[in-house]
Amino acid sequence: MSHAIQDRPVSVAPRRGSLSHARLPRWTPAAVAAFSIAAGIGIGLAAGWHSKVQWGMIAALLFVLTTYAVTTKVEGSRQAKDRVATSLVWVCFVLAVVPLLSLAWVTISKGMEVLDMYFLTHSMNGVLDAEAGGGVYHALLGTIEQVGIATLIAAPIGLLTAVYLVEYGGGKLAQAVTFFVDVMTGIPSIVAGLFILATWNLMLGFGPSGFAGAMALAILMMPVVVRSTEEMLKLVPNELREASLALGIPKWRTILKVVLPTAIGGITTGVMLAVARITGETAPVLLLVFGTKLINPNPFEGAQSSLPLYVYEQYAVGTDAAVSRAWAAALVLIAFVMILNLVARGIARWKAPKTGR
After folding, report:
1. If DSSP codes are grouped into helix, strand and coil, which group holds residue 177?
2. How far apart are CA 36 and CA 182, in angstroms?
3. Percent helix / strand / coil, the chain, rounded to 5
4. Per-residue pLDDT tens over the stretch 245-276
5. Which terminus in the chain has less CB density within 10 A, N or C?
6. Low-confidence residues of the chain, pLDDT below 50?
7. What is the CA radius of gyration of the chain?
8. Contact 112/326 with Cβ under 8 angstroms?
9. Residue 276: what pLDDT?
10. What is the pTM of this model?
């Protein structure tokens, strides 16, 4: 009888302060989010607010408060603070993604009304801005040439500058270079355009051209390339450099064969960020390229057009046909940047050092 009593399992409830606590089910965040959305819509309708942004802000606030209250009741205040931090991250993520998705949806829905092969392969030559028809070929060609020339100018200079600052830099020269890179980061695009206009066009006497616009875009691109490349090179472990130098390999070859291939993925991402920034610039192009309805394949002579300038000109006309062309050109611009990013990612993956056997 005594042995039977000793072998019987005894259930002990978790005491206060022990390591065992009650836990909320996995579906709790989803349920709280659904409740918050429904409550936000109900409060907005009851208050007579017709803006969905107001409904969303109320729902976000209710989501955080409800999460904290429920978690505190079940799991305790310490776990509640952790869940509130996670909830704030999700709320900020949604607040950032919703406008992006809304913009993409509006651009795609309105741009697809006009976008077709005719639109991509014809220019506005002989077509009035107020009339239907015409295309974006001349602007697409100008954007490809101007962005390509700007990248050929800015990417090598930015890369070499970053290599100098990380691998060789020291003293007053490196401090001066860093200072001017920081200053160039905040330069407005119109200032870069005015600088090229004053030097290239007015002082040297050259006329409007795609090359002039590309030089202004290169000025805007350089500091982004320098900063991003500098940070990626700093992430390369010093052990790799030391191992290469210990084998008697010169420093320049170590940088070329070890450091740069290791950081090629981040460097490519930085260059693509810089390209994405300059692709949508309008002010330098408006000052230096002037814009034209004709197809000009020569970026070194004569006025050219570009996609941002084309969007600005067509939207300024204001007619239904012109506004539709503006939305279609904006969609082409987004697709152009996305294709560049995919190509750059593919090249970076191809050139990156192989880690497997």
Report:
1. helix
2. 44
3. 75, 0, 25
4. 898 889 889 999 889 988 888 888 888 888 98
5. C
6. 1-2, 4-5, 9-18, 357
7. 29
8. no
9. 86
10. 0.78
The span from the CA of 55 to the CA of 352, in Å, is 47
Contact 279, 147 (CB under 8 A): yes
Distance CA 333, CA 176 (A): 36
Contact 79, 71 (CB under 8 A): yes
The length of the chain is 357
Tokens 């066009």 identify what position? Answer: 201
pLDDT at 23: 79
Residue written as tokens 């990380």? 166
d(CA 87, CA 95): 12
DSSP run (H or E) holding 31 = helix 28-47
The dihedral over CA atoms of 304, 309, 314, 316, expressed in degrees to the nearest 10, equals -130
- What CA–CA distance (Å, rounded) separates 70 from 22? 12
In eight-state DSSP terms, residue 285 is H
The rounded distance, in Å, linking the Cα atoms of 271 and 155 is 7
The burial of 20, by beta-carbon neighbours within 10 Å (0-12 exposed, 13-18 middle, 19 or more buried), is given as exposed
Q: Render 286-314 in DSSP notation, one character per residue.
A: HHHTB--SS----TTSS-B--HHHHHHHH
